[in-house]
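FW: tagging you since you asked about this chain on Friday. Here's the raw sequence from the shared folder, copied in full. Didn't touch anything.
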Amino acid sequence: MLDQLDALLLARIQFAFTVSFHFIFPSFTIGLASYLAVLEGLWLWTGREVYIRLFRYWVKIFALAFGMGVVSGIVMTYQFGTNWSVFSDRAGPVIGPLMAYEVLTAFFLEAGFLGVMLFGMNRVGKGLHYTATLAVAVGTFISAFWILSVNSWMHTPTGHAMNEVGQFVPVDWWAIIFNPSFPFRLAHTVMAAYLTTALVVGAVGAFHLLRDKINEGARVMFTMAIGMIAIAAPVQIFLGDAHGLNTLKHQPIKIMAMEGHFESHPDGAPLILFGIPDEEEATVHYEVSIPKASSLILEHSWSAPLKGLDSVPREEWPPVEIVFWSFRIMVGLGFLILFLGAAGAIAYFKGQLYHWRPLHRFALLMGPAGFVAVIAGWVTTEVGRQPYTVYGLMRTAESASPLAAPAVATSLLMFILVYCVVFSIGTFYILKLMGHAPYTGETGPEREIGPHRAAGITPAPALSPERTIGGRSAEART
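HL: got it, structure written out here
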């Protein structure tokens, strides 16, 4: 029994480790694919070379991140067949076709047009190349659609029945795909991906503005990033609130853990800002809270009653400490992102967007914040679903393969070693690409991104002094 418990814990750690690595890349490439489509569209519309230069700058980074996302995603499929074979057998009739739809629609669309987007600028014409860029962007969204539909069904399972051998079998595919939590989770996750990309683009732009505040490429990417953050951050807070209300309706125990409500509150629950939750004593030590504010947020009434964890058996509790803190990390970073967008908007309207160095330093510091926030949000969602894989119907302890702990430990160790080596190298090279200032002088013929250029840096041609006035080319002025 102890050996099986250890194997289960190791299998959970392995899945959490690999999915955390994998989730980093889609959360970046979903937004970056759309950003590339916007850049190329602006180039076609305005004819300004700065946009196509920025497209070429970021498409190399996209190619690397996309590749690492594909590689890390393959490992996820492998684990379903090794560590979680019972879950795969019982839930396979529902989740199997949905995963297949993701491959047949999203992955084929991305893979089919990715090569054209990377290498076909001068081979297929501007219109067809832009179609390929749009297809890749749409493909990333479709991929998120199917994956999040699967994940949401595991949280709010509908549209299925149980057969004689205990398998979930589909009855209503529309109810399965568009299950109660799916629209909220899709909107919240995709918006988080856009914000993650905007924060990275903003950080890169800020880095180069700190070194050269007249670099046109840095100015354009920083302006676009700040604009996206200023618009998307308030929208994301609204979507998060709607998602929270949906979770309260369908997974109230998760909300209890997120809020740290060990006790029921019949006359308004406090909003606990900080504290140290203690599951054994069922209390939050050193609590800092706002009286009745949680009831106001969740039920829109100061005096609305809210149930606590004392109303459900302990075996139904998720790991409260993890959910409590991961939720606060996500929310805290969300408000910092909101502040960055507001500060950037103020600087823009005051004409100081390219000169306010404290803003640039803050934006640079916030570059990784989107990745941390999406991982914290994923931890809140998935750990908060415990002790179930299919909420209320199939426990995690029932889902694991009958493996011995040493077998799971060996594969976990191999994953850690390989991931740390491979993805550290990939991340280092992405940061190296970001460290090169974007050349955006609006002179010279358009050059194609060949296979030898897709993974490297093209040296910027020099502008002669007589063709440059105030840091901008004469052609750019005219």
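FW: The CA atoms of residues 20 and 375 lie 7 Å apart.
HL: agreed, and Residues 442-478 have pLDDT under 50 and may be disordered.
FW: great, closing this out.
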